[in-house]
Amino acid sequence: MNIVVLHRIPFAKIRYDLAVDHDRHTVRYLSTTGTADGLPPGADCRVLDTSTADTDALARAHADWLGTADRLIARSEYDLLPAARLRERFAIPGDSPAAILPLRDKWLMRTLAAAAGIAQPAFWSVADFRRDPPAAGTYLIKPRLEASSTGIETGGVREILDGLDRLVGAAASAEVFVEEFVPGEIWHLDGYLRAGTVRAVASSVYVGNCLNYAHGSPLGSAQTPDEPGALALLRRTLPVLGQRDGAFHFELIRARDGRFLFLETASRVGGAGVAETFELRTGVNLYQADLRHQLFGDIDGPAVRLSTDWYGWFVFPAHHRDAGDDGTDDDGTGDDGTGDDGTGDDGTGGVEFDPDRFGERLVSYVRNARPTARVGEISYAAAATPLSGVVRGTAGQLRDTLAEICAPTSRAPRS
Protein backbone atom coordinates (compact mmCIF):
# COMPACT_ATOMS: atom_id res chain seq x y z
CA MET A 1 0.00 0.00 0.00
CA ASN A 2 0.88 3.64 -0.44
CA ILE A 3 0.33 5.26 2.98
CA VAL A 4 0.48 8.97 3.79
CA VAL A 5 0.62 10.03 7.45
CA LEU A 6 -0.28 13.47 8.75
CA HIS A 7 2.39 13.37 11.44
CA ARG A 8 1.73 15.32 14.66
CA ILE A 9 1.72 12.84 17.57
CA PRO A 10 5.32 12.10 18.69
CA PHE A 11 6.58 9.11 16.73
CA ALA A 12 8.04 7.48 19.84
CA LYS A 13 4.54 7.50 21.33
CA ILE A 14 2.45 6.23 18.41
CA ARG A 15 5.08 4.02 16.66
CA TYR A 16 3.67 3.74 13.14
CA ASP A 17 6.49 1.34 12.34
CA LEU A 18 5.04 -1.29 14.70
CA ALA A 19 1.69 -1.14 12.93
CA VAL A 20 2.92 -1.16 9.34
CA ASP A 21 6.04 -2.65 7.74
CA HIS A 22 7.91 0.30 6.22
CA ASP A 23 9.85 -2.00 3.89
CA ARG A 24 6.80 -3.80 2.55
CA HIS A 25 4.66 -0.66 2.18
CA THR A 26 5.43 2.88 0.96
CA VAL A 27 4.99 5.15 3.98
CA ARG A 28 5.32 8.91 3.56
CA TYR A 29 5.05 11.55 6.27
CA LEU A 30 3.62 15.05 6.03
CA SER A 31 5.00 16.50 9.25
CA THR A 32 3.08 19.25 11.05
CA THR A 33 5.75 19.51 13.77
CA GLY A 34 8.17 21.72 11.85
CA THR A 35 10.78 18.98 11.68
CA ALA A 36 11.43 15.43 10.51
CA ASP A 37 13.26 14.65 13.77
CA GLY A 38 12.15 11.48 15.51
CA LEU A 39 11.00 9.68 12.38
CA PRO A 40 12.69 6.42 11.29
CA PRO A 41 16.04 6.92 9.56
CA GLY A 42 15.54 7.53 5.86
CA ALA A 43 11.80 8.14 6.22
CA ASP A 44 10.24 9.93 3.26
CA CYS A 45 9.05 13.16 4.87
CA ARG A 46 7.91 16.63 3.89
CA VAL A 47 7.71 19.30 6.59
CA LEU A 48 4.52 21.30 6.14
CA ASP A 49 4.70 25.07 5.99
CA THR A 50 0.93 25.50 6.21
CA SER A 51 -1.76 24.44 8.67
CA THR A 52 -3.54 21.16 7.96
CA ALA A 53 -6.77 23.16 8.17
CA ASP A 54 -5.87 24.66 4.78
CA THR A 55 -6.78 21.54 2.83
CA ASP A 56 -6.76 23.38 -0.50
CA ALA A 57 -3.09 24.29 -0.01
CA LEU A 58 -2.23 20.77 1.08
CA ALA A 59 -4.05 19.29 -1.91
CA ARG A 60 -2.20 21.53 -4.35
CA ALA A 61 1.25 21.05 -2.82
CA HIS A 62 1.05 17.30 -2.20
CA ALA A 63 -1.24 15.98 -4.92
CA ASP A 64 1.53 13.64 -6.09
CA TRP A 65 1.48 11.78 -2.77
CA LEU A 66 -2.23 12.11 -2.00
CA GLY A 67 -3.34 11.20 -5.49
CA THR A 68 -1.72 7.76 -5.24
CA ALA A 69 -2.47 7.10 -1.55
CA ASP A 70 -4.31 3.95 -0.46
CA ARG A 71 -4.56 5.24 3.10
CA LEU A 72 -4.31 8.68 4.69
CA ILE A 73 -3.64 8.34 8.43
CA ALA A 74 -4.28 11.20 10.85
CA ARG A 75 -4.74 10.43 14.56
CA SER A 76 -4.43 13.89 16.14
CA GLU A 77 -7.70 15.66 16.99
CA TYR A 78 -6.56 18.66 14.97
CA ASP A 79 -6.06 16.59 11.82
CA LEU A 80 -9.11 14.30 11.82
CA LEU A 81 -11.37 16.59 9.83
CA PRO A 82 -8.72 17.90 7.39
CA ALA A 83 -7.71 14.31 6.63
CA ALA A 84 -11.35 13.34 6.05
CA ARG A 85 -11.72 16.20 3.56
CA LEU A 86 -8.56 15.19 1.75
CA ARG A 87 -9.74 11.57 1.57
CA GLU A 88 -12.96 12.74 -0.02
CA ARG A 89 -11.09 14.95 -2.47
CA PHE A 90 -8.68 12.22 -3.57
CA ALA A 91 -11.06 9.23 -3.19
CA ILE A 92 -8.91 7.66 -0.47
CA PRO A 93 -10.66 4.96 1.60
CA GLY A 94 -11.28 5.77 5.25
CA ASP A 95 -13.26 8.11 7.49
CA SER A 96 -15.27 10.71 5.55
CA PRO A 97 -16.25 14.23 6.69
CA ALA A 98 -19.80 12.98 7.31
CA ALA A 99 -18.43 10.29 9.63
CA ILE A 100 -15.99 12.58 11.46
CA LEU A 101 -18.16 15.67 12.01
CA PRO A 102 -20.50 14.17 14.66
CA LEU A 103 -17.38 13.08 16.56
CA ARG A 104 -15.51 16.36 16.11
CA ASP A 105 -18.06 19.19 16.06
CA LYS A 106 -19.17 19.58 19.68
CA TRP A 107 -22.39 21.41 18.78
CA LEU A 108 -23.39 18.68 16.35
CA MET A 109 -22.53 15.86 18.75
CA ARG A 110 -24.48 17.52 21.57
CA THR A 111 -27.46 18.19 19.29
CA LEU A 112 -27.56 14.57 18.11
CA ALA A 113 -27.23 13.34 21.69
CA ALA A 114 -30.05 15.63 22.83
CA ALA A 115 -32.33 14.34 20.06
CA ALA A 116 -31.69 10.81 21.34
CA GLY A 117 -32.54 11.78 24.91
CA ILE A 118 -28.99 11.32 26.23
CA ALA A 119 -28.41 13.03 29.59
CA GLN A 120 -26.08 16.04 29.32
CA PRO A 121 -25.71 19.59 30.61
CA ALA A 122 -28.07 22.15 29.07
CA PHE A 123 -26.66 24.07 26.09
CA TRP A 124 -27.71 26.95 23.84
CA SER A 125 -26.78 28.53 20.54
CA VAL A 126 -25.36 32.02 20.87
CA ALA A 127 -28.58 33.51 19.49
CA ASP A 128 -30.81 31.57 21.89
CA PHE A 129 -28.70 32.44 24.95
CA ARG A 130 -28.72 36.11 24.03
CA ARG A 131 -32.45 36.08 23.32
CA ASP A 132 -33.49 34.45 26.58
CA PRO A 133 -30.58 34.25 29.06
CA PRO A 134 -31.06 32.37 32.34
CA ALA A 135 -31.55 34.43 35.48
CA ALA A 136 -28.46 33.07 37.26
CA GLY A 137 -25.89 30.29 37.26
CA THR A 138 -22.46 29.54 35.80
CA TYR A 139 -21.90 28.83 32.10
CA LEU A 140 -19.18 28.20 29.53
CA ILE A 141 -18.57 29.56 26.06
CA LYS A 142 -17.30 26.51 24.19
CA PRO A 143 -15.77 26.45 20.69
CA ARG A 144 -17.26 23.80 18.41
CA LEU A 145 -14.02 22.60 16.79
CA GLU A 146 -11.26 23.25 19.32
CA ALA A 147 -9.63 20.72 21.65
CA SER A 148 -7.74 20.72 24.98
CA SER A 149 -10.09 23.36 26.46
CA THR A 150 -8.71 25.94 24.03
CA GLY A 151 -10.86 29.07 23.85
CA ILE A 152 -13.28 28.14 26.64
CA GLU A 153 -14.57 31.03 28.76
CA THR A 154 -16.51 30.57 31.99
CA GLY A 155 -18.53 32.88 34.20
CA GLY A 156 -21.92 34.09 35.28
CA VAL A 157 -24.67 35.20 32.93
CA ARG A 158 -23.40 38.76 32.58
CA GLU A 159 -19.83 37.62 31.94
CA ILE A 160 -20.97 35.15 29.32
CA LEU A 161 -23.11 37.78 27.58
CA ASP A 162 -20.13 40.16 27.59
CA GLY A 163 -17.96 37.39 26.14
CA LEU A 164 -20.49 36.75 23.39
CA ASP A 165 -20.60 40.47 22.63
CA ARG A 166 -16.87 40.35 21.94
CA LEU A 167 -17.44 37.88 19.10
CA VAL A 168 -17.06 39.59 15.75
CA GLY A 169 -19.59 38.74 13.07
CA ALA A 170 -22.07 35.96 12.48
CA ALA A 171 -19.34 33.48 11.54
CA ALA A 172 -17.61 33.85 14.92
CA SER A 173 -20.92 33.42 16.73
CA ALA A 174 -21.60 30.23 14.80
CA GLU A 175 -18.25 28.76 15.90
CA VAL A 176 -19.18 28.61 19.60
CA PHE A 177 -22.09 27.67 21.83
CA VAL A 178 -22.98 28.12 25.50
CA GLU A 179 -23.09 25.26 27.98
CA GLU A 180 -24.37 25.02 31.54
CA PHE A 181 -21.63 24.45 34.12
CA VAL A 182 -22.49 21.39 36.22
CA PRO A 183 -20.38 20.84 39.36
CA GLY A 184 -19.02 17.33 39.81
CA GLU A 185 -16.22 14.91 38.95
CA ILE A 186 -15.05 14.79 35.34
CA TRP A 187 -14.42 11.25 34.11
CA HIS A 188 -12.98 9.90 30.89
CA LEU A 189 -13.51 6.45 29.41
CA ASP A 190 -10.86 5.24 26.99
CA GLY A 191 -10.76 2.19 24.77
CA TYR A 192 -11.68 0.93 21.34
CA LEU A 193 -14.64 -0.46 19.40
CA ARG A 194 -14.90 -3.25 16.86
CA ALA A 195 -18.11 -3.49 14.81
CA GLY A 196 -20.02 -1.49 17.39
CA THR A 197 -18.86 -3.52 20.39
CA VAL A 198 -16.62 -2.06 23.09
CA ARG A 199 -13.65 -4.44 23.09
CA ALA A 200 -11.63 -2.75 25.84
CA VAL A 201 -12.31 0.18 28.17
CA ALA A 202 -10.67 1.85 31.17
CA SER A 203 -12.43 4.37 33.38
CA SER A 204 -10.56 7.31 34.90
CA VAL A 205 -11.34 10.43 36.90
CA TYR A 206 -9.44 13.71 36.56
CA VAL A 207 -7.55 15.19 39.48
CA GLY A 208 -7.95 18.84 38.60
CA ASN A 209 -9.51 19.52 35.22
CA CYS A 210 -8.55 20.36 31.66
CA LEU A 211 -9.88 23.93 31.87
CA ASN A 212 -7.67 24.74 34.86
CA TYR A 213 -4.75 23.11 33.03
CA ALA A 214 -5.37 25.52 30.17
CA HIS A 215 -4.98 28.35 32.68
CA GLY A 216 -1.76 27.00 34.20
CA SER A 217 -2.62 24.36 36.82
CA PRO A 218 -1.27 20.79 36.82
CA LEU A 219 -3.57 17.96 35.78
CA GLY A 220 -3.80 14.35 36.84
CA SER A 221 -5.94 11.35 35.97
CA ALA A 222 -6.54 8.26 38.12
CA GLN A 223 -7.94 4.98 36.87
CA THR A 224 -11.03 3.97 38.82
CA PRO A 225 -13.39 0.97 38.87
CA ASP A 226 -15.97 0.98 36.10
CA GLU A 227 -19.41 2.30 36.95
CA PRO A 228 -22.43 0.73 35.22
CA GLY A 229 -24.00 4.15 34.66
CA ALA A 230 -20.88 5.48 32.94
CA LEU A 231 -20.51 2.43 30.70
CA ALA A 232 -24.20 2.54 29.79
CA LEU A 233 -23.86 6.19 28.77
CA LEU A 234 -20.82 5.33 26.61
CA ARG A 235 -22.56 2.42 24.89
CA ARG A 236 -25.67 4.46 24.25
CA THR A 237 -23.95 7.60 22.97
CA LEU A 238 -21.33 6.35 20.50
CA PRO A 239 -23.85 4.63 18.17
CA VAL A 240 -25.93 7.83 18.11
CA LEU A 241 -22.82 9.66 16.85
CA GLY A 242 -22.06 6.96 14.30
CA GLN A 243 -18.86 5.49 15.75
CA ARG A 244 -18.59 1.71 15.38
CA ASP A 245 -14.83 1.17 15.18
CA GLY A 246 -11.54 2.54 16.45
CA ALA A 247 -10.35 4.34 19.55
CA PHE A 248 -12.49 6.63 21.68
CA HIS A 249 -11.81 9.21 24.39
CA PHE A 250 -15.20 9.80 26.02
CA GLU A 251 -15.65 12.55 28.63
CA LEU A 252 -18.53 12.72 31.07
CA ILE A 253 -19.33 14.29 34.41
CA ARG A 254 -20.57 12.63 37.55
CA ALA A 255 -22.86 15.28 38.99
CA ARG A 256 -23.21 15.73 42.73
CA ASP A 257 -26.45 13.73 42.67
CA GLY A 258 -24.55 10.74 41.21
CA ARG A 259 -25.90 10.99 37.66
CA PHE A 260 -23.51 10.69 34.73
CA LEU A 261 -23.89 13.36 32.04
CA PHE A 262 -22.30 13.27 28.58
CA LEU A 263 -19.82 16.08 27.83
CA GLU A 264 -18.00 15.20 24.61
CA THR A 265 -16.13 12.45 22.84
CA ALA A 266 -13.33 12.05 20.30
CA SER A 267 -12.63 9.22 17.88
CA ARG A 268 -8.94 8.91 18.70
CA VAL A 269 -6.62 7.97 21.56
CA GLY A 270 -6.63 10.36 24.50
CA GLY A 271 -3.60 12.55 25.10
CA ALA A 272 -1.12 12.93 27.97
CA GLY A 273 -0.58 9.53 29.66
CA VAL A 274 -3.81 7.87 28.53
CA ALA A 275 -2.20 5.32 26.18
CA GLU A 276 0.63 4.46 28.58
CA THR A 277 -1.63 3.89 31.59
CA PHE A 278 -4.20 2.03 29.47
CA GLU A 279 -1.54 -0.43 28.34
CA LEU A 280 -0.17 -0.87 31.86
CA ARG A 281 -3.67 -1.67 33.14
CA THR A 282 -5.01 -3.80 30.25
CA GLY A 283 -1.98 -5.05 28.32
CA VAL A 284 -3.42 -3.44 25.16
CA ASN A 285 -1.51 -0.79 23.22
CA LEU A 286 -4.36 1.54 22.31
CA TYR A 287 -2.44 3.32 19.55
CA GLN A 288 -1.62 0.04 17.84
CA ALA A 289 -5.20 -1.24 18.08
CA ASP A 290 -6.45 2.02 16.60
CA LEU A 291 -3.85 2.05 13.82
CA ARG A 292 -4.66 -1.53 12.81
CA HIS A 293 -8.24 -0.47 12.20
CA GLN A 294 -7.21 2.64 10.28
CA LEU A 295 -4.75 0.71 8.13
CA PHE A 296 -6.31 -2.70 7.63
CA GLY A 297 -9.97 -2.46 8.61
CA ASP A 298 -11.92 -4.55 11.06
CA ILE A 299 -9.54 -6.99 12.74
CA ASP A 300 -9.46 -8.46 16.23
CA GLY A 301 -7.33 -6.78 18.84
CA PRO A 302 -5.29 -8.44 21.58
CA ALA A 303 -6.96 -9.95 24.64
CA VAL A 304 -7.28 -7.76 27.73
CA ARG A 305 -5.15 -8.92 30.66
CA LEU A 306 -5.90 -6.74 33.66
CA SER A 307 -3.05 -5.80 35.98
CA THR A 308 -3.49 -6.07 39.72
CA ASP A 309 -2.26 -2.46 39.92
CA TRP A 310 -4.10 0.66 38.86
CA TYR A 311 -2.39 3.57 37.13
CA GLY A 312 -2.62 7.30 36.74
CA TRP A 313 -0.76 10.11 35.02
CA PHE A 314 0.11 13.74 35.70
CA VAL A 315 1.30 16.64 33.60
CA PHE A 316 2.35 20.23 34.29
CA PRO A 317 1.71 22.99 31.73
CA ALA A 318 4.20 25.25 30.00
CA HIS A 319 1.95 26.99 27.44
CA HIS A 320 0.71 29.56 29.99
CA ARG A 321 4.10 31.16 30.69
CA ASP A 322 4.76 34.78 29.80
CA ALA A 323 5.97 35.47 26.29
CA GLY A 324 9.34 36.60 27.68
CA ASP A 325 9.85 33.30 29.52
CA ASP A 326 11.40 30.65 27.29
CA GLY A 327 10.73 27.92 29.83
CA THR A 328 14.40 27.20 30.52
CA ASP A 329 16.21 27.12 33.82
CA ASP A 330 18.87 29.72 34.43
CA ASP A 331 21.65 27.26 33.58
CA GLY A 332 19.79 26.04 30.49
CA THR A 333 20.19 22.37 31.37
CA GLY A 334 17.58 19.65 31.39
CA ASP A 335 16.85 16.31 33.00
CA ASP A 336 15.21 13.27 31.47
CA GLY A 337 14.13 11.87 34.82
CA THR A 338 17.11 9.54 35.21
CA GLY A 339 18.79 11.36 38.09
CA ASP A 340 20.31 14.55 39.41
CA ASP A 341 22.00 16.63 36.76
CA GLY A 342 24.23 18.27 39.35
CA THR A 343 23.12 21.79 38.61
CA GLY A 344 21.50 22.47 41.97
CA ASP A 345 17.97 22.84 40.58
CA ASP A 346 15.29 20.28 39.81
CA GLY A 347 15.56 20.53 36.04
CA THR A 348 11.84 21.13 35.51
CA GLY A 349 11.74 24.68 34.23
CA GLY A 350 10.79 26.04 37.67
CA VAL A 351 8.43 23.25 38.83
CA GLU A 352 9.45 21.75 42.17
CA PHE A 353 9.46 17.93 42.26
CA ASP A 354 11.19 15.31 44.43
CA PRO A 355 10.80 11.86 42.84
CA ASP A 356 12.27 10.06 45.86
CA ARG A 357 9.30 11.21 47.90
CA PHE A 358 6.99 8.89 45.95
CA GLY A 359 9.09 5.72 45.90
CA GLU A 360 7.50 2.76 44.12
CA ARG A 361 4.33 4.74 43.49
CA LEU A 362 6.21 6.59 40.72
CA VAL A 363 6.47 4.42 37.60
CA SER A 364 8.21 6.95 35.38
CA TYR A 365 8.60 10.67 34.85
CA VAL A 366 10.02 13.16 32.37
CA ARG A 367 11.45 16.52 33.35
CA ASN A 368 12.29 19.23 30.83
CA ALA A 369 14.24 22.40 31.43
CA ARG A 370 13.28 23.48 27.91
CA PRO A 371 9.66 22.43 27.32
CA THR A 372 8.74 22.88 23.68
CA ALA A 373 5.18 24.18 24.20
CA ARG A 374 4.61 27.49 22.49
CA VAL A 375 3.00 30.23 24.53
CA GLY A 376 -0.77 29.92 24.22
CA GLU A 377 -0.70 26.54 22.41
CA ILE A 378 -1.97 23.95 24.88
CA SER A 379 -0.11 20.65 24.82
CA TYR A 380 0.02 17.55 27.03
CA ALA A 381 3.02 16.01 25.23
CA ALA A 382 5.94 15.11 27.49
CA ALA A 383 8.43 17.13 25.44
CA ALA A 384 6.17 20.20 25.57
CA THR A 385 5.76 20.22 29.34
CA PRO A 386 8.15 20.78 32.25
CA LEU A 387 7.05 17.70 34.17
CA SER A 388 4.90 14.63 33.47
CA GLY A 389 4.76 11.08 34.69
CA VAL A 390 2.91 7.89 35.56
CA VAL A 391 2.02 6.55 39.01
CA ARG A 392 0.70 3.24 40.33
CA GLY A 393 -1.23 2.01 43.33
CA THR A 394 -4.60 0.77 44.41
CA ALA A 395 -7.65 2.51 42.99
CA GLY A 396 -8.08 4.26 46.33
CA GLN A 397 -4.46 5.41 46.58
CA LEU A 398 -4.09 6.92 43.11
CA ARG A 399 -6.09 10.08 43.68
CA ASP A 400 -4.20 10.81 46.91
CA THR A 401 -0.86 10.30 45.15
CA LEU A 402 -1.81 12.58 42.27
CA ALA A 403 -3.17 15.23 44.63
CA GLU A 404 0.12 15.06 46.55
CA ILE A 405 2.12 15.52 43.35
CA CYS A 406 -0.02 18.31 41.94
CA ALA A 407 -1.10 20.35 44.97
CA PRO A 408 2.16 21.49 46.61
CA THR A 409 4.17 21.94 43.43
CA SER A 410 4.22 25.33 41.77
CA ARG A 411 5.99 27.51 39.29
CA ALA A 412 8.99 28.84 41.18
CA PRO A 413 9.45 32.62 40.91
CA ARG A 414 12.34 33.80 38.78
CA SER A 415 14.89 36.24 40.01
How is this structure best summarized?
The protein has 415 residues and is of the alpha+beta class. It contains 15 helices and 16 strands. It has three domains: 2-94, Rossmann fold (3-Layer(aba) Sandwich); 122-180, Dna Ligase, domain 1 (2-Layer Sandwich), CATH 3.30.1490; 184-406, 2-Layer Sandwich (D-amino Acid Aminotransferase, Chain A, domain 1), CATH 3.30.470.20.
How would you portray this structure in words?
The chain is α+β, with helices and mostly antiparallel strands and 415 residues long. It folds into three domains: 2-94, 3-Layer(aba) Sandwich (Rossmann fold); 122-180, Dna Ligase, domain 1, CATH 3.30.1490; 184-406, ATP-grasp fold, B domain (D-amino Acid Aminotransferase, Chain A, domain 1, 2-Layer Sandwich). It is 28% helix and 24% strand. It has 15 helices and 16 strands. An eight-stranded antiparallel sheet has the order 13-12-9-10-11-14-16-15, with helices on both faces. The chain starts with a strand and ends in a 9-residue tail after the last helix. Residues 323-347 and 409-415 have low confidence and may be disordered.
